[in-house]
Amino acid sequence: MKKNILVARRVFDSVLERLRVHFEVEPNQDDLIWSKAELIARLQGKDGAFITASERIDAELLDACPQLRAVCNMAVGYNNIDLDACTARGVLASNTPDVLTETTADFGFALMMAAARRMAEGEHFLRRGEWDKWAVDLLAGSDIHGTTLGLLGMGRIGRAIAKRGALGFGMQVIYHNRSRLAPELEQESGARYVSKEALLQQSDHLLLVLPYSPAVHHVIGAAEIALMKPTATLTNIARGGVVDEVALAEALSKHQIAAAGLDVFEGEPAVNPVLLTLPNIVLTPHIASATVKTRLAMADLAADNLIAVLTGGVPPTPLNGQVLQPGLA
Ligand code: GLV
């Protein structure tokens, strides 16, 4: 008999078809956003769940869904999943690393460039019909090439951005991370390890690419921004919670830093209304991994994990693979 799964959000038809070969599938092709109670109700009798970063999997949900054996996240970040709670209950959790690295790095770099070169501001100015003459300092921004790129976080995506900066744009690349990279990885990324304080003080363009956990909540706040150059830009493609948005808005409005680019927000999809009023910020709706090819690869990888776990195979990208080895969990 086929096992039952819930696909919590709309996915590509080809991925649903693959899942239907193995499972009885309850899809959500209307892409409805369910409350926690509704998610729990729909997970009754389900062995697995295909989820996205929008669905929160915590101890309360797991206790209410005792049949659940696998939660497969279509995202590399997994702060929406209480991994310890999953492991304690023998539930396999997985994410989608690697397949989105280069796409996300492209976007991070583009968002940084858009902020530095005032692209969104220029576009809004043009659309408002305000472009009536050339001017010597019209929307003059700051250079990317030859400047100092700072990375807070240095996982796969950070390293891919570092390479773009060092090799493509002749940037000095500095980084700060929980742990320093092995020398060969530092060399490959063209990046130099510095303290967090030095990173803030020296970066012309600071990019946030660290995984979110409560330990890094508001790791960039008023005190950190105060250390940055007044000409610097700040770009966040990690998770909204790493930046204190109120402090950032205040700093941008006072030109304590030049510009910012945000793809992620603390209360997304709601956006702090103050941010919407600021000209010197580029705002995008959490789309750093959004190319058709990459989103398909992510969905396929989440499906691969779900199929493997529930059919006795080896999931390709587990987060707590020990639950599959009795005795180790
Ligand atoms: C997107 O934010 C992801 O974590 O994949």
SS element count, helices: 13
CATH topology of the largest domain: Rossmann fold
Work out the strand percent: 5-15%
Oligomer: single chain
Q: Please outline the major beta sheet.
A: 7 strands, parallel
Q: Order of strands across the biggest sheet?
A: 8-7-6-9-10-11-12
Shape: globular
Give the distance, in angstroms, between the N- and C-terminal Cα atoms.
27 Å
Determine Rg (CA atoms, Å). Answer: 21 Å
Helices and strands: which structural class?
alpha/beta
Arithmetic mean of pLDDT: 97
CATH superfamily of the largest domain: NAD(P)-binding Rossmann-like Domain
CATH architecture of the largest domain: 3-Layer(aba) Sandwich
Q: Helix coverage percent of residues?
A: 25-40%
CATH class bucket of the largest domain = Alpha Beta
Number of strands: 12
Order of helices and strands: EHEHEHEHEHHEHEHEHEHEHEHEH
Q: Compute the number of structural domains.
A: 2
Poorly predicted runs of 5 or more residues: none
Ligand catalogue: glyoxylic acid
Characterize the structure shown.
The chain has 329 residues and is an alpha/beta fold. The chain has 2 domains: 3-97 and 292-324, Rossmann fold (3-Layer(aba) Sandwich); 101-283, NAD(P)-binding Rossmann-like Domain (Rossmann fold, 3-Layer(aba) Sandwich), CATH 3.40.50.720. The protein contains 13 helices and 12 strands. The chain has helices at 13-22, 36-43, 59-64, 83-88, 101-116, 119-127, 156-169, 183-189, 196-202, 222-226, 245-253, 273-277, 292-310, and strands at 3-7, 23-26, 48-51, 70-73, 92-94, 148-152, 172-176, 191-193, 205-208, 233-236, 259-262, 281-283. The strands form 2 sheets. It has a 7-stranded parallel β-sheet with strand order 8-7-6-9-10-11-12, with helices on both faces. Strands 2-1-3-4-5 form a 5-stranded parallel β-sheet. Strand 6, helix 7 and strand 7 (172-176) form a beta-alpha-beta unit. Helix 5 (101-116) crosses helix 7. The protein starts with a strand and ends in a 19-residue tail after the last helix. The mean pLDDT is 97. Bound molecules: glyoxylic acid.
